[in-house]
Write a structure and sequence with these properties.
103 residues, alpha+beta, 4 helices, 5 strands
């Protein structure tokens, strides 16, 4: 299971391990990971398409919904995750707790 993100190197490892960490959407052929959007009081969905190798994000909440997925280059993805690492870490911790409870 992924460890919490404390450095840019941790984020790079998170992105490499993403298919094992994230959920998978058969219809969209994408791995996805949902976490809180603290700035807009909603949620972000981080997605990776294994076929196109494309990283995208999409945000939505009660008062907003981004019109489309936003394509990010790998360097932009690292910056985006770094900026939102507290929310990502919260989900990673929950996943770790859930996994250890099942074991």
């Amino acid at each position: 299971m992924a460890r919490v993100l404390r450095s840019k190197k941790d984020i790079e490892q998170f992105l490499m391990d993403f298919p094992q960490i994230a959920f998978y959407d058969d219809q969209g052929n994408k791995h996805y990971f949902i976490f809180e959007d603290k700035q807009r009081n909603g949620q972000w969905t981080l997605m990776f398409n294994e076929y196109t190798k494309a990283w995208t994000i999409h945000g939505k909440g009660e008062t907003y919904c981004d019109p489309d997925e936003q394509l990010l280059e790998p360097a932009e993805m690292v910056k985006f995750i770094w900026k939102n690492r507290s929310s990502v870490n919260k989900v990673l911790r929950q996943k770790t707790e859930f996994s250890s409870e099942k074991a």
